[in-house]
Amino acid sequence: MTAKNLYLVCAVCVFNLSFCFADINVLVNPGFEETGGWSSRGGVFTQSSEQKHTGSASGKSSNRTMTWHGIKQPIIDKVIIEKTYSISAWVKLENTLAAPVTISIEKHDASGVSYTNIVSAQANNTQWVQLTGTFTFQAQGEPSLLDIYFEGPPPGTNFFVDDVEVIGPPAAAISVEIKPQASAKISPDIRRQKIEGFGAAGAWYDRTLAGFTDRPNFYTVLFKELGLDILRIRNTYDYNGYDSNYIDRAVKFITVANQYSPKPLKIMVSSWSPPKYLKSNNNTKGGTLAKDADGKYKYDAFAQWWLNSFADYEKHGIKIDYISMQNEPDYLTSWDTCRFDPNENENNAGYDKAFRAFYNKISKLPNPPKILAPEGKNILTTRRYIDALTAEDKSHIYAYAHHLYGDGSEDVPDSFIRPMARFAADYNDKPRMQTEFAKESSGGDVTSFEAAMSLAQFIHNSMVIESTSAFIYWQIIWEAPLGLISTTPTTFTINPVYYAMKHYSAFTDPDWQRIEASTDSPALRMSAFISPNNHNLSVIIINTSDINISLACEINNFETGKIYRTSQTENCVHTENYSNNKPLILPKNSITTIALVNQ
Q1: What's the pLDDT tens digit per position in 377-395?
Q2: In the beta sheet, which residues pair with residue 186?
Q3: Beta bridge pairs of residue 527
Q4: Domains of the chain (ranges, CATH numbers)
């Protein structure tokens, strides 16, 4: 069959459009309301509720034995060379009347290691003092480290930090020229990663389905039309009282899903927390693994609980395809959580030791599931957990799994590109899977068209920049107004983010392979996936600009198909059948899927 060209044409005049992103605070967790982003630079770093400038917590540096000991956060993937950033923070001492506190920058680049003091001020233990200054990021060659940190008081002085700001353009902020004409090329012969699929979590709010009177329509929308491949659920085996019947509810959910889904769902199980009798605080919320009478963490009991849970899931008829030992081991909050540090210490159990005990039990199963690890809250912390594992430990992992909370500004999806690219380059010895993400900024907005465009770009960057083999959304259903679908006791609402996911999930299947797709337009995000038998090919194009774009796209050997589009007025609708001789408009700010068939 001869090569065919697809011409996507719209009648517009040629003009240029430049855009850039607004200045933002590039820091993760700037108010210390969570545990992520920050770490110790000597001494001990803790999230503390003892003192706070605003909110409910601040960062505390204690057990300091050097003046440079303090608190730090990497910003290497968050700022732009030659750009200037405004820096500010509030500081307070604990056990000294007065002492200086300094905000500094540590940089490693081709010229070596440098330390720059941004601003110093005399802090005290009676009131909060603000530090303000500016920093221009300059580097020779490709920098390998860039940290902002707090230091200065004499050894033995504890201090608090809160409401830190590094304000400036995010890493993705560049001005570009957008033209209404562009070209692209799809190359089926250049193969990239094989995909496990697209999915979402049914971890909570499944009980809201009990009052529905229109369940067939709901299940059709959720499972048949969305075409998800993976359902992520919790391990609540041996819970007593709270959510003790979750597994029974999950069985019903999965059974119905498979009745409506065009393909059997693959099941991923993760633990948010073991039962309270295995916890240091006798509670599924917070804490770490419990210790035995000899003061040793109960790794074997934890692993045995996991093994016993398999028998229970099997008894309920659930086949587990993927397993993750602990959801976000680096994160504690008010819901079910369990803290594991990369290595064991007095305060927290070690992920490395727990993983070995876990694998030793799970490996004895006749058909053990694929192990995903370590499922950190973001890429940055995931690195620390992977690096704590031995080569043998890592050989037991099927895919490196992580979430995306805090690796950039959620309002700027492209600010995640650098950490994604670095992770793909540094951890390329096995597949990578993004196993949970939903925007937390803007109140977790899922109801605006902008939220749909944002999610589509996050999926694209994950699949193309990081080359992940799976993208799993957080809430498949949730209490209104969140989730792919929002629920009330009797009704449901399809949110715009549902359609962004559908452009990928409904037009691909497990074992499809991403193929090379390139374009000369910086406004377009393009990815393509082909079936194992080379019979079907799906091309997803996101037009992120405010103009219509005419795209000439070369696709070999595919002549027929259908075109689906989401825009301000359309929700993944079939706009027309594909014909290489028929023009197609790619509207401004839109998502388009071309589902092609090789005949």
Answers
A1: 999 899 999 999 999 999 9
A2: 517, 555
A3: 540
A4: 4-19+179-189+515-597 (2.60.40.1180), 24-168 (2.60.120.260), 196-510 (3.20.20.80)
Q: Are 165 and 482 in contact (CB under 8 A)?
A: no
Task: Report how far apart the first and last C-alpha atoms of the chain are (Å, whole number).
Answer: 9
Instruction: Please give the structure tokens belonging to residue 402.
Output: 């992580």
- Radius of gyration over alpha carbons of the chain, in Å? 25
pLDDT band for 3, please (50, 70, 90 cuts). very low
Distance CA 45, CA 61 (A): 5
Confidence at residue 101, expressed as pLDDT on a 0 to 100 scale:
98
Query: Which one, of 425, 421, 431, lies nearest residue 397 by Cα?
Result: 431
Which ranges of 413-542 would DSSP assign to H, the alpha helix? Answer: 417-426, 449-460, 496-505
Q: And the tokens for 347?
A: 């305060």
Residue 420 one-letter amino acid: M
What letter represents residue 383's amino acid? R
Q: Which two tokens stand for residue 398?
A: 């099927």
Tokens of 523: 């406004």
Report which residue type is found at 450: E
Q: Give, for 477, the enclosing helix (H) or strand (E).
A: strand 477-479
Distance CA 134, CA 127 (A): 24
> Which is nearest to 193 in space by CA: 436, 463, 395?
463
Beta bridge partners of 594: 539, 563
Give CA separation, 40 vs 75, 86, 300, 465, 470, in Å. 15, 23, 30, 30, 33
Q: pLDDT digits over 79-113, tens only? A: 999 999 999 999 999 999 999 999 999 999 999 99
d(CA 246, CA 234): 8
**AA letter at 163:** D
Using left for φ > 0, alpha for ψ between -120 and 50, and beta otherwise, residue 213 falls in alpha
CA dist., res. 417 & res. 383, Å (int): 16
Report the alpha-carbon distance of residue 289 to residue 299 in Å, rounded: 8
- What sign does the CA torsion over 397, 531, 590, 474 have? negative
**pLDDT score, position 21:** 56
Cβ atoms of residues 280 and 291 within 8 Å = yes
Cα torsion through 506, 509, 514, 520, rounded to 10: -10
* pTM, full prediction: 0.81
